[in-house]
Amino acid sequence: MSRWPSGAQSRLERAALELFVEQGFAETTVPQITARAGLTTRTFFRHFADKREVLFAYQAELPTVVANVLADTPATLGPMDAIVQGLQTVAAELEGQRGYLLTRRGIIETDDGLRERELRKQSILSEAIKLGLLQRGVDELTATLTAQIAVSVFGVAVTRWLDQDEQLSLLQVLHETFTALTVFAKRLTAAAPTDEP
C-alpha cells in the first residue's frame, strides 16, 4: 500500500518531507509547504498544529493502535508472547514503508527538538503498552518491564532494519532481535544474585 494515499493531509506530508530533505527542517516554512502541495495555509492548520506535527501526525493514535493490537491477541498468551505477536503485526504493516521511515529518520536526526519529540513518542508508546497489559490483568511490575523491553527491542529492530541493505525483512530482523534478547535474558538469569546467604 502506498504511503501517500490521496487527500490534503497526505499531500501536505509529501510536500513537507520533500522540502525538509531539500532545504532542511529549520529552513522550511508552512507557506512553502502549502505552496508545494498546492493548498492553503488554512488547510495546513486544519491538519497540523505546526510543521513538526507532520513528522508525528499519528502520535496521538498510538494508545488506540496499541489497544487494538493487544485486543487482537489471544487472552491465553502471556504478556511477552502477546507483545511479540502484536509487534509482528506492526512490523508487517511497516514493511512497505522503509523508504519513508529512512527519510523521516534522516530529518529527525538533524534537529535536537525533533529528537526529543521522538523520545517522547517512545515514552507514550511504552505507557500505552503498559496500560494495555494492565487491562489484560498483568501485574504492574511485569507490565512496566514488558512495555519498556518491547519498545527497546522494537526500536533496535527498526534501526537495524533501516541500516541494512534490504537483505532481511523487518519481521526477520525483529525475530533475530528477540532471539538475542532471549539469549541475554538466560545469561542474566544465570548471573543474577540470589537471596541465599
Supply the key terms.
70% helix; DNA-bd_HTH_TetR-type_CS; Arc Repressor Mutant, subunit A; TetR family transcriptional regulator; Tetracycline Repressor, domain 2; mainly alpha; transcription regulation; elongated; Homeodomain-like_sf; 0% strand; 197 residues; 9 helices
Question: Overview of this structure, please?
Answer:
This protein has 197 residues and is mostly helical. The protein has 2 domains: 57 residues, Homeodomain-like (Arc Repressor Mutant, subunit A), CATH 1.10.10.60; 134 residues, Tetracycline Repressor, domain 2 (Orthogonal Bundle), CATH 1.10.357.10. The chain is built from 9 helices and no strands. α4 runs parallel beside α7. It starts with 7 loop residues before the first helix and ends in a 6-residue tail after the last helix. It holds the Pfam family TetR_N. Keywords: DNA-binding, Transcription, Transcription regulation. GO terms for molecular function: DNA-binding transcription factor activity; transcription cis-regulatory region binding.
